Amino acid sequence: MCLGVPGKVVEVFEEHGLRMARVDFGGVTRRACLEYMPDAGLGDYVIIHVGFAISKVDEEEARRVFEFLAEMGDLREAGIPGGATP
Amino acid sequence: MRFVDEYRDADAARALVGLLARRVTRPWTVMEVCGGQTHTIVKFGIDELLARGVELVHGPGCPVCVTPLELVDKAVAIASTPGVIFCSFGDMLRVPGSSRDLLAVKAAGGDVRIVYSPMDCLKIARENPDRRVVFFAVGFETTAPANAMVVWQARRLAVPNFSVLVSHVLVPPAMEAILSSPASRVQGFLAAGHVCTVMGYEEYEPLAERYRAPIVVTGFEPLDILQGLYMLLGQLEDGRCEVENQYSRSVLREGCLPARRQIAEVFEVCDRKWRGIGEIPLSGYRLRPEYRAFDAESLFDVGAIEVAESPACRAGEVLQGLIKPNQCEAFGTLCTPERPLGATMVSSEGACAAYYHYGRFREAAPSRR
Ligand code: SF4
Q1: Fewer CB within 10 Å, N or C, chain B?
Q2: Whole-structure pTM over 0.95, yes or no?
Q3: How much is the ipTM here?
């Protein structure tokens, strides 16, 4: 039930005094409430849960697992067993 | 889909499994709290990829599974009341009450509707002024901002025919109940990413310290879970017990402040009963007095409901990580997703249903307790 799906904000509008958006999930768009994400705007990726944006995806942080793996690969090639903790 | 597909990359997953195998030197027992994570773990077979001796036990993080039987019965009674439109998230419809579920009410002609968002109910209420519209507001902290907004909006727009049947539960008190139980074997937690997206993780810091149990806030995709496990098992190996954040692309330490403010505006903390576990102090939300006009429990007098669970069902032990679903005698025989005895077999996030759907019932059950 706590599923949240990342989608891209493609339209922002107001309805009954609430900040709303149309959010694109890989080709399917749905309405969502942006009231809790005042900083999120067009082009941003937000996590939507039951029709509400609860966070904005931090694109830099999103790369961390891949950077970590690349780093561990480098460390292993350098012959350091186990590498470092993230 | 962006921010989903890349976290399912098979090569990266294999690399993480390899790193984990090298990092782990001793057996450990850790719990993933959230049912969504249980689902990913069982679906992708992450539990089977792990180094020998690392055991994942499945936690109570499925709101559908822990909603008390009495409340399901109340929902059934309200939904059966003439003139009511009863709205619910889809996964609550098949949760067995003591005599029937919401789907049976619908089949018998009751107006039970599945909604995607709580806001849909407000629209239904405004379009049907002569009917009473009730929303079954279940969920963890993740769903609380949405449920708080709909009640706040109902008061602001003065929608008198709308109310909510609230069954909100909170994760940290349940984690504490598990940690403080003498039967618990849990040495560390993968905390639920979207619960922390809303609430942050400050609350976990005293828990980690008091019980000397590391906690890693973790996302839902396979790579998230593998990296979360790498961080958690690394802490255990090093003898650390900190709160770390694997899911930093979505979670801030303080959570989502506007959402937390709205929750605090509408809800207050109360004691809650958890299905299969029992009452946990200060583990849920109820409406604040200013919003009681929207409280379906006081608006609909459905009488005191006393119920007993199926004696065969061991969902309480499953939810606390004390047994695995396939250690229950009824699993896959008396109890199946088509004829569930307990809520953990209904919801796709329930551990029993996950084991059933992904074929774990074919395995020889581990030693029975
Ligand atoms: S398999 Fe069915 S009866 Fe057994 S614990 Fe799970 S839900 Fe209950």
Answers
A1: C
A2: no
A3: 0.90
